[in-house]
Amino acid sequence: MTQSPRIAIDAMGGDVGPEVMVAGAALSRAAFPEIRFTFFGDEARIRSELSKHKALARNVEIIHSDEVISGEAKPSQALRRSKDSSMGLAIAAVKAGEADAALSGGNTGALMAIAKVALRTMEGIDRPALSALMPTLGDNDVVMLDLGANTECDAENLVQFAVMGAAYARVVLDIERPRTALLNIGSEDEKGTGMLKDAAARLRAADTLPLDFTGFIEADRLSRGHVDVVATDGFSGNIAIKAVEGTARFVADLIRQAFTSSLRSKAGFMLSRPAAKLLKNTLDPNFHNGGVFLGLNGLVVKSHGGADANGVRNAIGVAAKMAIADITRKIASDLENFPKQAIEDAAE
Amino acid sequence: MTQSPRIAIDAMGGDVGPEVMVAGAALSRAAFPEIRFTFFGDEARIRSELSKHKALARNVEIIHSDEVISGEAKPSQALRRSKDSSMGLAIAAVKAGEADAALSGGNTGALMAIAKVALRTMEGIDRPALSALMPTLGDNDVVMLDLGANTECDAENLVQFAVMGAAYARVVLDIERPRTALLNIGSEDEKGTGMLKDAAARLRAADTLPLDFTGFIEADRLSRGHVDVVATDGFSGNIAIKAVEGTARFVADLIRQAFTSSLRSKAGFMLSRPAAKLLKNTLDPNFHNGGVFLGLNGLVVKSHGGADANGVRNAIGVAAKMAIADITRKIASDLENFPKQAIEDAAE
Fold first, then answer.
1. Are A119 and A133 in the same domain?
2. What is the ipTM of this complex?
3. CB-based contact A258 B275, cutoff 8 Å
4. CATH, residue B72
5. What is its EC number (chains A, B) (predicted)?
6. Residues of B in contact with A255 (CB under 8 A)
7. Residue A348 domain-assigned (yes or no)
8. Which sign does the torsion angle of CA B85, B88, B91, B93 carry?
9. Per the domain annotation, does B306 fall within a domain?
10. Per-residue pLDDT of chain B (348 residues; tens, 9 = 90+)
11. Distance of CA B297 to the CA centre of its chain
12. Distance between the two ends of chain A, CA-based, in angstroms?
């Protein structure tokens, strides 16, 4: 366990690049004073941004790279260009043990492909999954995965996602037996695709798994706080999380319109400013930025491409917390100690 | 075109039954004074509810039925029991030309199966789709389909959903060439499943279709008002719409908490009551209740199982408006006149 996590940052990924990545790193120092950074990318641009954040000069390295993986690159193209790219170099630093986590705001498919080839999946896991924490009305956030790393999945992938998600919840949310559900279009056993019924049967049969399988959950119940982990294929998970984000933003826009539509409403809005601020924090996607790739022998965190400096700060916070908690080793030992036999039994 | 639409109501469907179905019908008289109802179900219970709504006594018929299709019934079971059920009888009334629309708050899969067998699909359409209007920040609502009638689809189904959705938008939103998109996990051409790429290629090639195909749309852009129609398979569509509904409710709950967390916030909330009311109307799922099955030779509207009397009123409003607009004939003639050749060309 480290108290001074070393974060390898792909400074070129995302819509903006070094400007927000460096600014986000500077902001993250408040919560993690011992954090150390290595920035990968255009040295001149990174240096110019660093000059605006004097406090960051300590414990910072720059590794120059000319190659940037574009947002449009296919995973196969990204893999070919990985070696000298800012994204590939950041992941290579994790592989070499020179960094505790890599962080990128770049192309998700490319990041996934490069990370999978460089770090390989944990024993017992066929495919890594992109996971994130979503806010709920309950006491805890909910862990959701996969959010888009695997467009098409089979029942065995879903079972593995459930087990990894539960291990993640155990570490992050400190819940011994996380309540774990599969995302479906109905809660009854006979609803959904064959893949989902198959995965549910395996999870139901595997009663030695260190999780409580609660069956299917519908997308309108995600935020209720009744489960700790929601496993789903990457297509449905991506649709669900983007629908949640888009609606939260839509509603926030409506609120702004509604509460400023008349003088009286405007006055009410001003009076409620502390409440409005709380609302903004909960609803701002930057506040929840930072998806973790689970199932790899190394920690890789995805920041939203459109994140601002606060968003990058929060994604760095996720990477730092996971590094301090030594999540990769904990998930690996979880997978090794308890459920392997149960997963195999359930898979039969 | 009728100005006195006749609505066949399955009084037994939904979580509550006759109480909300009759109360919703009574409320709908305000907007549609000439509307006529036939209620199918337990005559004694319906009569007892009607006695509470004297104004409704005019233009109301009751057809007794003992059989109710349960929420758990599989489509195959529902079909076997359809003949004497309140749901089956309501749809039979549409088939017989005795009603202009059937409305039920019951089991969606059962409703779809019974409607498909009784009314059959329009020529050129393989599968009906459940569609609904969703609010946006733009000038118009967006038509979205399929929302759960078809768990698994192929590219041809998606093309047909796009064509039907565009015809629906033409009638309901009065847009000559609706901007039509496919729901996907990225907006770039290479994103998503083979099915989606195939459907996109067909729609792109079919430039004589009376719609503007705008490519892929991600779930966080649904409410932006940039497209008029979003076509998707029933699994993804159901995940998306439920994630939208659940988040809207989640945020509404947060607002309530936030604006009543302190005296000052509470005062602000009270002052902004007109704005809060506007917000509630836009966010209340009852306000948007009423999904239309498109692609059938007859009009069938699904009300949410948990809808209250206001929700049922709104679903009846959708049924009445569609009946007055003669949507079924208009979509059929749209399909017949323009795009058939184009669809076939595109499908090749």
1. no
2. 0.87
3. yes
4. 3.40.718.10
5. 2.3.1.274
6. 255, 279
7. no
8. negative
9. yes
10. 577 999 999 999 989 999 999 999 999 999 999 999 999 999 999 999 999 998 887 789 999 999 999 988 888 999 999 999 999 999 999 999 999 999 999 998 899 999 999 999 998 899 999 999 988 888 889 999 999 989 899 999 999 999 999 989 988 888 999 999 999 998 888 888 999 999 999 999 987 888 999 999 999 999 899 999 999 999 999 999 999 988 888 887 777 777 776 776 677 766 666 556 656 666 676 777 889 999 999 999 999 999 999 999 999 999 999 999 898 888 887 777 655 566 566 555
11. 16
12. 37
